[in-house]
Specification:
Belongs to the class I-like SAM-binding methyltransferase superfamily. rRNA adenine N(6)-methyltransferase family. The structure is a single chain. The longest helix has 21 residues, at 237-257. The protein has helices at residues 13-23, 40-46, 59-70, 105-114, 130-136, 147-155, 193-203, 211-214, 218-227, 237-257, 270-282, and strands at 9-10, 30-34, 51-56, 78-82, 95-99, 123-129, 156-164, 169-170, 177-184. The protein has two domains: 3-184, Rossmann fold (3-Layer(aba) Sandwich); 193-282, Helicase, Ruva Protein, domain 3. It has eleven helices and nine strands. The chain has a seven-stranded mixed beta sheet with strand order 4-3-2-5-6-9-7. A two-stranded antiparallel ribbon has the order 1-8.
């Protein structure tokens, strides 16, 4: 097994059954499994779902998976895609059920919920590193509240299901795991998602710093000014400084008018940050990666 690819196979049948049960699979469902490995979870999913799409990067695992499924007579229900989950265009599916490689958890969740070709799906039942799961479920005001939790909770309800000991894997990883369930929200706020992601990256650059302090940095103000229609490039130094001073006053005015200057993003809800982004846009300030 390649530890560099996060290959730790879940072998406890009781835990596998619990994951399948809490996934609430219907007979007509197509299930996407990312990182099936040798198929311990896949075999159980095939017994419940109409189809399983297994996305696996390792050809060796694909060969083992094909042989194991052939022995069950359920191969007609299985579609194996050999590729990188972060680079592969995902097919249509109803559910995600997966033991996700720890190293790609964050970008993979972003792809599922924020991707340009993101599919509408009912739920995702995911086995994640326990510390990552805790970060994912942090709430405003918690010491661990972070940009990941903010962005994921904007798009989905997140439910803790159960802890899974590292002893249930072969080879055992260094840390314990947890199962969480994500249900995409039926109503997502009307916001430009790429801009929202750029905005929250700016706010959470130092999540415990006040927004007033974060938006005083000259480099960040220059970036915002250029993207918001200012020049700030190729001008005479005096003209550039004058334009930057006016832009800084505009940004400061937005923060002060909404009572946000002394607020810390780690203690703010998504609704409050959405309100702040709307105020910035109304004043002609926009965000871009």
């Amino acid at each position: 097994l390649y530890k560099s690819r996060g290959q730790h196979l879940l072998t406890n049948s009781r835990v596998l059954d619990s994951i399948v049960r809490c996934s609430e699979i219907s007979p007509d469902d197509t299930v996407l499994e990312i990182g099936p490995g040798t198929g311990n979870l896949t075999l159980k999913l095939l017994q419940q779902a109409k189809n399983v799409v297994a996305l696996e990067i390792d050809n060796r695992m694909v060969d083992i998976l094909q042989r194991r499924v052939a022995d069950t007579g359920l191969q007609s229900r299985l579609n194996i895609i050999c590729g990188d989950a972060l680079k592969t265009e995902l097919p249509q599916f109803d559910l995600v059920v997966a033991n996700i490689p720890y190293g790609i958890s964050s970008p993979l969740l972003a792809k599922l919920l924020y991707g340009t070709n993101a599919n509408p799906f009912r739920a995702a039942t995911l086995l994640l590193q326990k510390e990552f799961a805790k970060r994912l479920m942090a709430e405003p005001g918690d010491s661990s509240f972070n940009r990941l939790a903010l962005n994921m909770n904007l798009m989905a309800d997140i439910e803790f299901v159960m802890d899974v000991s590292k002893r249930e894997f072969t080879p055992p990883p260094k840390v314990d795991s947890a199962v969480v369930k994500l249900r995409p929200r039926s109503h997502v706020p009307e916001v430009n998602l790429p801009e929202w992601c750029a905005f929250t990256r700016t706010c959470f650059g130092n999540r415990n710093r006040t927004l007033g302090a974060s938006f005083k940095k000259k480099r960040k103000l220059m970036e915002l000014m250029r993207f918001s229609g200012g020049h700030g490039d190729g001008e005479e130094e005096e003209e550039e400084e004058a334009e930057l001073r006016l832009f800084r006053e505009r940004v400061g005015g937005v923060l002060s008018s909404g009572g946000f200057a002394d607020r810390r993003p780690s203690k703010m809800s998504s609704d409050e940050l959405l309100d702040l982004l709307a105020l910035f846009n109304e004043s002609g300030v926009y965000f871009h990666d």
